[in-house]
Amino acid sequence: MRSRRFRHLAVPLIALLAVTAVAVVLVGHLTGGLGGDKRTSEHGMTGLPAATDAQRKALSDSIRPVPATPAGKLRFGLGPGLDSAQSSPLAGDLDFYSTWFNGPNDLGFLRKWKLDLIPQVYRSGHGVHLIVWLDGTGSTGTFSTAHGQACGREYPLSSAFLSDARELASIFAGTANGPALYVTLFTEFQTYPCQTNAWAASAETTNYYLTLKDQYLAAMQIFHAGAPNARVSLGWGGWQERWDDPLIGGGKSLLPYFADVMRASDFQSFQAMGGDPSAPDVQSMTAALGRFGPVMLAHYKSESQSAWQSDMQVLLTGDEVRQLSAAGLFAFSFMDQDNIGSSPAALALARGALQSHGIRSPL
Q1: For residues 283 and 281, what is the distance between their CA atoms, to the nearest angstrom?
Q2: Which class for 221: exposed (0-12), middle (13-18), buried (19 or more C-beta within 10 A)?
Q3: Which DSSP string do the residues of 265-292 spell out, in sequence order?
């Protein structure tokens, strides 16, 4: 359930991409605001008119602030599901529980959770964190979009996804003054096009990213309309700051192409996973994304228990929590309990970090 694979990205093997212009568009027919003609491809992809400056400003003006978090403190979460987090020995020290949407097949059990588990979690005073990961969905290929031919995963850019997003908003909705619903949309989105991690190795890659931004803004508005407690972010893979190629928009230079949607977001998200220590990625991504708003480490896990212990010592002891908080980090979610439950000492280390540096919203 809610399984997903690790990313092993060696920088020398990453295909770097070529620069082209940025355009921001919105899905008017689904979010109710943009007029103009719409085009539909043979794949059911809907092309959309460009947003005006006034419409882009309206998105920024509609940002929902994350719950206030004192300086030097973090809100901790745990996955991979609401059920497993609820039964964790750390449940009482958590501010929110994380769970996953990996594609349409997950709607079956989530519809059942809508009737019981999700209301239980909110009543307990815990927030919910929904992670949307779609790199494993459907086919990868070339198809038409409003921006031209694109190459990559088709489902994230489809009208079917936006329909599913509307149902997800209904399933996870809570009250406006209750615990938060955090949404990390399109986590590791840099991997969704056929060519990854930079702006465009071809026109098809650029067009994919442009359309992904359309979908993100449309889905954010869907969650805002359908879930009064929702706060929405774009989910970065945490490796993006490891290198830079300004000429072609690779590595660090990919971030500016998404500055417009990040400025319109409620908060920012990234992940940190793999076999090496992740502390450098956490520090660099927090600094980079913190320029655009509050930052969440959306799913953290290590394949190496020694690397996990090193990360815990570096990130969650001493003065580092205060420094990360000052850089913008407000939340830290463990992907699952594998590292935490590996030994009594690991559980004690995690519990100590949560009790020393964590905060919970009042019941």
Answers
A1: 5
A2: buried
A3: SSSEEEEE-SSS--HHHHHHHHHHHTTT
- Has residue 14 been placed in a domain? no
Place of tokens 């949607």: 261
Radius of gyration of the chain (CA): 19
Contacts of 257 (CB under 8 A, 6+ apart): 22, 199, 209, 249
Instruction: Decide if 296 is inside a domain.
Output: yes
Prediction pTM value: 0.87
Work out whether the CA dihedral 55, 29, 39, 207 comes out positive or negative: positive
Burial class (CB in 10 A: 0-12, 13-18, 19+), 291: middle
The model's pLDDT over 97-118, given as tens digits with 9 standing for 90+, comes to: 999 999 999 999 999 999 999 9
List, for residues 162-215, the tens digit of each pLDDT value.
999 999 999 999 999 999 999 999 999 999 999 999 886 789 999 999 999 999
CA distance 47 to 249: 25
Judge contact between 143 and 124, C-beta under 8 A.
Answer: no
> Is 10 domain-assigned?
no
Q: What single letter denotes the amino acid at residue 173?
A: A
Q: What angle do CA 79, 74, 240 make, to 5 degrees?
A: 70
Distance CA 219, CA 214 (A): 9
Whether 199 is in a domain gets the answer yes
Number of compact structural domains in the chain: 1
- Hey, what are 361's tokens? 């919203």
Q: What range does the domain containing 132 cover?
A: 21-64+72-357
Backbone angles phi, psi at 345, to 5 degrees: -65, -40
d(CA 161, CA 9): 27
CA torsion sign, 148 to 140 to 21 to 29?
A: positive
Beta bridge partners of 143: 150
CATH assignment at residue 102: 3.20.20.80
For residue 96, give the 3-state DSSP assignment. strand
- The continuous run of DSSP H or E covering 333 comes out as strand 329-334
Least confident of 40-44, 150-154, 192-196, 219-223: 40-44
CA separation for the pair 274, 312 (Å, rounded): 14
Q: Which two tokens stand for residue 212?
A: 């992904």
Q: What are phi and psi of 22, to 5 degrees?
A: -100, 135
